Amino acid sequence: MKKNFGTKLIIIVFTAFIAILGLLYVFMPKNEFSETEKRYLAQAPKLTIQSLKEGTFSKDFETFLADQTPLRSIFVSINAYFELIKGNNGSNGVYLGKDGMLIEKPFARENRLETNLERITSFASKQDIPVSLVAVPSKGYICSDKLPKNAQKYLDGEYNDYIRNKVYGKMKFVDVTKAFLNAENKEDLYYRTDHHWTSKGAFKAYEAISFDLGWPAVSSFQYKLPSADDYNIETYEGFYGTSYAKSCYTLTKPDDVELWVNKETLGNAKVTITEGEKITENDNMFFRNHLTDSDRYLTFLDGNHSLVKIETGNEGKKLLLIKDSFAHSIAPFLAENYSEIIMIDLRYYGAAVKNLIEEEEINEIMFLYSIENLATSMDIYFD
């Protein structure tokens, strides 16, 4: 009798769960964006004769059901921790490291480092102005003491040596990796929940760039050597980055976003963003409107754009910064030493770079990429 009652209870609970889940599917509002995963969710597809013939409707409808599952973020998070308990540390390519640090696994894509370096060095050899290359190491390599057991090997050190040996001629290699490995608190150089460096990390890289490029004595223009005392630090709590979104390790504590604001300039500059025919302007390098967004890293120069021009009002030279997203938080530091910085992202910038150099009368060029993007980018072209 008790056995039958237990069986009936399980059936009743399961049936009720399915019924409630079905009702939630019908009546709960459909979300357009997942704050946890930081991505747009699939919406209900339109049923057409063509979509039925091509078989796209059923596929799109399955994606819609998966994305709009009631309490989806909770289920995804439970699954991530369940896999962790089973011994599978690495949810969607992200390790849960010591002290709650989320660390993205080493990249597994095709290694194009040799090809991309050849293109960069060939481009640099054609310039009659100084060119430098900054390669940003991964969090997993620098913070290796935070990795879980049996983590995959990070090859940043080998890639760094390879880059150093391949850079020749007029181009200067800035060894950020060495500076980061020698830092006292290496875990402070990267966000806990994101793959980017923090403002502390960006400042540490700024120091390395300053000394490797021989500042302040460069030609007749006096560059400014960095000092942390020159900044007011604004701290904003509650930042969950891309590593958090990928992994769904939702028990991870959020990061603080620090804005290092120069006491003299207050970050003021004319920032012009060009995206095709659309042009927008801002009077400060910090876009504080993004401090309430899900991705607070956008506070630094509004994120990825084709072309961004920073006009500081300083005396000095014009820098062309060819970059990935790591450049966004270091640009306000670099801007203190130039009259203008023009940033381009080769993923979106389709014009000939040599024409931009001539038209803008560029005096210096800097490449700033993560080692991963240097080794995997398919977009490093200059014509």
Q: What descriptors fit this protein?
A:
single chain; 383 residues; eight-stranded mixed β-sheet; 35% helix
Strand content: 15-25%
- Outline, from the CA principal axes? globular
- The proportion of residues forming helix, as a percent range, comes to 25-40%
**How many discrete domains?**
3
* Annotation field: number of helices: 13
Mean pLDDT rating: 86
> How far is the first residue's CA from the last residue's CA?
80 Å
3D architecture notes:
The longest helix has 26 residues, at 2-27. 35% of the residues lie in helices and 21% in strands. The termini are far apart. Residues 217-221 have low confidence and may be disordered. The chain has helices spanning 2-27, 49-54, 56-67, 72-85, 113-125, 139-142, 156-166, 176-181, 199-212, 242-247, 327-334, 353-360, 371-376; strands at 33-34, 39-40, 94-96, 102-104, 131-136, 171-174, 217-218, 221-222, 231-239, 255-262, 268-275, 278-284, 307-311, 317-323, 338-344, 364-370. The strands form 5 sheets. An 8-stranded mixed sheet has the order 6-5-16-14-15-13-11-12, with helices on both faces. A two-stranded antiparallel sheet has the order 1-2. It has 383 residues and is an alpha/beta fold.
Topology:
Elements: H1 2-27, E1 33-34, E2 39-40, H2 49-54, H3 56-67, H4 72-85, E3 94-96, E4 102-104, H5 113-125, E5 131-136, H6 139-142, H7 156-166, E6 171-174, H8 176-181, H9 199-212, E7 217-218, E8 221-222, E9 231-239, H10 242-247, E10 255-262, E11 268-275, E12 278-284, E13 307-311, E14 317-323, H11 327-334, E15 338-344, H12 353-360, E16 364-370, H13 371-376
Parallel strand pairs: 5-6, 5-16, 14-15, 14-16
Antiparallel strand pairs: 1-2, 3-4, 7-8, 9-10, 11-12, 11-13, 13-15
